[in-house]
# Entry
Amino acid sequence: MSQSEKFYITTPIYYVNDRPHIGHLYTTIAADVLARFQRLRRVDVFFLTGTDENSQKNVEAAAKHGYKNIQEYLDVMAATWQSTFSDLQMSNNAFIRTTEKRHRVAVEKFWALVKDRGDIYLGEYEGMYCTGCEGFKLEGDLVDGLCPLHKKAPDKIKEKNYFFRLSAYRDRLLEHIDNHPEFIQPITRRNEVRSYIEKFMEDVSISRDVSSLRCGIPVPGDDSQVIYVWFDALINYLTGVGFGSDEATFVRYWPADVHLVGKDIIKFHCALWPAMLMSAGLSLPKQIFAHGFFTIDGEKMSKSLGNVIDPLEVVKKYGQDPLRFFLLKEITFGEDGDFSLKRLQDRYQGDLGNELGNLVHRTLSMTEKYQAGQVLKGKNTNEQNLLKDEWSRYEQAVLKLDFGGALEIIWEMLRWSNKYIDEKKPWVIAKEQPDLIPEILFNLLERLRHVAWLLKPFMPETSAKMFEQLGIADHEAQKTYEQAQIWGGFPENATIVKGEPLFPRLEE
Ligand code: ME8
# Structure
């Protein structure tokens, strides 16, 4: 890997009609893990997240909170999102807001490209619109006349709008999906999108009458219309890397390597967006990965049920690494799952406290007790390149976005070490054959060094604490990703610095 290789990863841009909840963090944390993993490999990463601001939902929220000036509300909320992400140490390179000037410039440029292609026409729209989804609805999308997601009857609208010739891209979209199996992942989502494109996809209205909307980017050359929020929002992925403002950056990073999204917005990302790009003559993202949705204790997360989880509250109690670990280990990435504070507490005490924290504590205590904190290699220390297989399986798992699988490999290593201590009984050996102790401790310490490396993208704070306690923070910081993988790299004569427990016991 080298700096010449690039990796551009995005999250959805979020509506600011509320504060971030744990579901939004889920996507952003997953993107953060991938970004950190690629940086570890010295790949040149661009990680983009941000806020979707030209939405009717935001206008309604501003009114509800008593704001007369919508932009003021958007500024306050965008700042809240930005500070939440930075408090949780998300490593995004940029944060895009769709009310920024540079975005408007990009959208206008994009509109012109699509228009020049002959894919925009004026038509009459008569139908239904759900503000909750910010999407148009067909009769077949409704259950008892209501949007199944928002439990509300959509608004009936009849307007003159601009349309995008989406249906003209049906064959090209299907061909692209069929020729690029990695384009839409996981496969269940690919099948779902494929069938939508084949059977249901129609041209789509991409503007609204200015009299019915109080937000949005005006249609170039027609002030009586504003651009439909999804048409504008998707373009953020281009604006974020300089489309229309910084050509060199754009050429460097586009196309995106992964758009990470929730399964709720796949039609927009896997059908509309690629068709828009085809029309504008731009390359398509390499992959759209849609993860599942999770419930809270088996219920849909909703304000009315009062079960919306604020990530900052969780982090206040457990710390950010346990939250990252829990979300990615408990819920198989790509599938639906359930979030429960009880399970989080169990995993905090079990996987983190007992399996990882205690292992570090036991190993460091023994190093203190038997070797006065010094690390020694021991004469029989195994010089083979152990753990090669673990590194390669880990890497394959992360590249497939199988985060749970990658964490499982690390936990297999921890279990191996815990068992090794129980079986070797160093406290007996220390009395009977003390010259074997350095080798046993080296095996444990060296494994912990590898674990700290593998944890870096997933649990950056814990990894840093482990390097400190192992006494090798500066030493390891000099290493490349490839050097880190070589067995036996723990420097002899390092001095461990036993610190606070990594995961102190907490009240239930
Ligand atoms: O859809 N489980 O924004 P949004 C898992 N602005 N993920 C969840 C979740 C849950 N229970 N709840 C939310 C929008 N998410 C548009 C996107 S992109 C050009 C425009 C995550 O604020 C998941 O990633 O409604 C989902 O796709 C996203 O939040 C929706 O965020």
About this structure: The CA atoms of residues 34 and 414 lie 22 Å apart. The pocket of ME8 is lined by residues 12-15, 23-24, 26-27, 52, 233-234, 236, 261-262, 264-265, 293-294, 301 (CB under 6 Å). The mean pLDDT is 95. The longest strand covers residues 120-130.
